[in-house]
Amino acid sequence: MESTVWLASRSLPRPGVGCCNLLSRVRRSGGRLKPCGNGRKVVVCVSGTEGKTKVVIVGGGVGGLAVGGRLAKEGYDVHILEKNSHVGGRLQSLEVEAAVGVGGKSDDPGGQECFRFDTGPSLLLLPQKYRDAFTAMGEDMDDYVTLKKVEPAAYRVFFGEDEGVQSLDLLYDVQKMCLQLEQVEEGAGGAFLRFLANAKEALDKDLYVGLTPYNAPGVFSLLAATELTDGVWYPVGGFAKVRDGLAQAAQKVGATITTKATVKRIDHANGQVQGVTLEDGTFMRANIVVANADLPYVYNSLLGSKVKTQASKLLSSKYSASVIAFQWALSSRLERLSHHNVFLSNCYEESWHRATDASTILERPNFYVHAPSRTDSTVCPLGTDAITVLLPVAHLGEGFSIGSASDDKQIVEAARERVISSLVRSGIGDISSMILSEVVYSPPTWQDSYNLQYGAAFGLAHNLLQLAYFRPDVAEPSIKGLYFAGASTRPGNGVPLVLMGAKVTTNRILEENYPFLSGN
Ligand SMILES: Cc1cc2nc3c(=O)[nH]c(=O)nc-3n(C[C@H](O)[C@H](O)[C@H](O)COP(=O)(O)OP(=O)(O)OC[C@H]3O[C@@H](n4cnc5c(N)ncnc54)[C@H](O)[C@@H]3O)c2cc1C
Fold it and tell me: pTM of the entire structure?
């Protein structure tokens, strides 16, 4: 894989015109010139394709693909290394074959007998940020991904006591939304308008300007503002379309992608990055390394002891929850579900404590259900359903009990039982007899699949002191040439933020390094 060319001094012409010609030729093609010895001898090192600055990216998640594509477009020689057999990281779609005879053909002209699940992101917010990522690679997102607005409601919320679970739709139509809220509680409509106006104003200013511990709580209302103003969108064909689109666009501008390539170590010496060593022992020299894998894992497993302080600081940071996820293929369609559904517990305060074992999962926990066939007919055969349930639980660092495989099994069983009984209470239907197939993700799955520290599905938490500028920087100051991209660096977690972060990382690299080695 090494493409460095060394021209030893004996291969140089005599000093004089010939030598100068060679030097300027090398400079033009981007070679690095390093005088050594008595001044007559010159060692020329040309790294990467045609003398381009060589960048290795550790991880092919959204962050890695977006930075890789941007840098390739700028003229860098980019190699993205992904440990799994697919790029995309947490952003994935999973297809499960339907049992023979289940459901009718979908009304999609292509038809299919598959159930499709988005195992990571399911809400596509701030579509412009996705568009920007493609534009930065010189591509048009519409050539890769078709977005459809989730309508008429952004999502449906189920709440209330056992005797009367109610539902409320988060409608884009503000007037209808106010009327609906007034029916639940007098005065709630006006309060909603004030809330929305404040959130919108903050959003229009800038997502991150003014974020201090004194005014940051308002930041969380931005989510609601973007859902109701920009809308919630869905990529037709599933989130895999976003994954494949980003990968294809990055490859088109020259980035190479290697899957099943696990990086064992990021090599550095004397404060300078040198490259990476793969699990099979291969060393890949690089001028720049961008680590897209989860940052706490990078510091603790890939960088060695030189960065001990930052490594242990990250370990003791606050982490997001983990989740138990169920992907269920169902023999019937659940008519009361909307595309996005939130089920709220009847025990408000208790419900925010993260469950650590089977006994601490509430009878009626908070959970989310994704049912995308309401927007996209290619999700499952007609008359059936494909739903994903996400139930937040503790991460592995805060006592999630996995002493043995049977512990994990018990928690998953309790989670399944509580979700199903909550669905029954909410009038969705008894799905226990409808489940044709099930795929489960629990905290150890998140840890093992993507090297997420503690199996925390969303990485470092978004508390006020870990958001935007308070999140770890996109470069490691003590190792020149080492940069970061992804959910646990600035500005934060979630695909749009990771895409915004990719721009920040790219700009930093452009400021500090030339795409051709002569400028380094
Ligand atoms: C269940 C769930 C639901 C979510 N819902 C939403 C949503 O609705 N909307 C939204 O916008 N966001 C959502 N997110 C968040 C979103 O998925 C992430 O913010 C985003 O995908 C993170 O991308 P990333 O590039 O930072 O990291 P990752 O996706 O973690 O990518 C890092 C990559 O590095 C690879 N890697 C790790 N170690 C190595 C190694 N040693 N060598 C080589 N490769 C390595 C990993 O395999 C992975 O592919 C959700 C996440 C989860 C888990």
Answer: 0.87
